[in-house]
Amino acid sequence: MSGLELIASGIPGLDDLLEGGLVPGRMYLVRGSPGTGKTLLGMEFLSSGLAAGENVLFIHGEEAREDITANAAEIGIDLTDAEFLDLGPESDFFTGEQSYDLVNPQDVESNQFIDDIRDAIEDVDPDRVCIDPITQLRYVESTDYQFRKRLIALARFLKDRGTTVVATRTEYADTSTDDDIASLSDGIIELRRGENGRRISVPKHRGVGQKDSSHGLAMRAGGLEVYPSLVPENHSAQFDAEYVTSGVGELDSLLDGGIERGTATFVSGPTGVGKTTVCTQFLERAADDGDNPIAYLFEESAETFAYRSENFDVPVRELRERGDLAVEPMEPLDSSPEEFAQKVKSQVEARDSNVVLIDGVDGYKMSLRGDEQALVENLHALVRYLKNMGVTVLLVDEIDQVTGLPTPTSVNVSYVADNIIFLSYVEMGGRLRRVMGVLKKRVGDFEHTLREFTISDDGIGIGEPLHGLQGVLNGAPERVDIEDTDFANGPRR
How far apart are CA 206 and CA 32, in angstroms? Predict the structure, then answer.
């Protein structure tokens, strides 16, 4: 951590990426393609200064002052007390006759620009300046060399006065990223927008450091919101060997007493087999035990979840009304994986929750923006964070195949799982029947048998171990002589 004094950027999540905020008296470049939020970030920066009682100056050239203040007001940012310097041409530049005599027109405009900027800064004496965009200075310089000289002079002039500068630059496909503006800037903030949603990164923060990689960004009614990626190593909790139980004796027996606290359990199986129903049994017991569980629903509404649960005797509405259970439906394509992770983090810490359900993994991938590998990495980081905090995690995972068990999980996330409970259909006697078993339990023993189970108005019913059958995991069970199997010795406990 740097010992430099830092000031707020106006966006708390961005301050996190900047390891605390901006260094006063330095210049920061905000770059990105059109529509990524560069001007909005500059507005938030100036608004934060106004809130702190500072003088601020907005140097602009592409939008009129009236448009800037109106756009800011639309998202709740008040810039009426800011000072403005408009470097853009007046409308009569397009309609009137312009002529220059004896001198290079670029020299006239360049000197006028610099004089206007110097006079405004000396009159306003700003603590913060936003230059939107800084490339407008390039258009009036005759050479790249002259432009660099102007930039260096401007940066030194502002630094000598202790003024913090945020300068924006619009980038296109052919824009060089290793240019004079970037090299002269003390910090660089990159904004991007694509199929994976809005993203933000900080590749440079001189003398302070930054959180590397790409992070979540959202443009909402209240302005820009930044969601840093979770870093599980920053959190730790002592492992607790106690159990989280389902309250269903036979299911807990399969798990040799239950699920160890602070572990991650995948409940896998085909559609409709009862994965969420099984998880809801754990939620009900956790609610009764004061664990303040939270269910994040990616594949159904809260009302549908409550209705289905109450049909097998789990009073979800009552538990929610008492505050013993929180249910959070997630809207499709509404957030980045980082935003979801930060939401889980804040709610778990606010509620002191010890049990979390994510229903389900496929819905997580479909509803959150990002490529599949990035989503898996973010899910892994979230699960590690929760486990490090001592939270027990349940994940509903759908397998495509109706019968059999071709893979333990639907995506390459089985390494995240401490425990895997699998549910499947088998065809016996011309009927589809449900079976349940445990494939993995990292820190404890489990029953190495399969059991048939049913779902009714009274909840889950689990039968005796299916002795005398083989091939259940292939979806085509066959009866065998029990004397020829290890089942004759009884289940391993």
Answer: 20
pLDDT per position as a tens digit, 427-451: 777 788 899 999 999 988 999 888 9
- Secondary structure of residue 45 in the 3-state scheme: helix
Distance CA(97)–CA(175), nearest Å, equals 33
Average pLDDT over residues 124-134: 94
Q: Are strands 478-479 and 27-32 parallel, antiparallel or unpaired?
A: unpaired
Structure-block tokens of residue 354: 């010890």
Please list the residues that pair with 456 across neighbouring strands.
459
Summarize pLDDT for 260-315 with one digit per residue, the tens. 999 999 999 999 999 999 999 999 999 999 999 999 999 999 999 999 999 999 99
Q: Phi and psi of 87, rounded to 5°?
A: -100, 0
Positive/negative CA dihedral, 385, 387, 389, 391: positive
Q: Are 140 and 103 in contact (CB under 8 A)?
A: no
- Say what angle helices 65-74 and 38-51 make with each other, to 10 degrees: 80
Domains assigned to the chain:
12-228 (3.40.50.300), 233-489 (3.40.50.300)
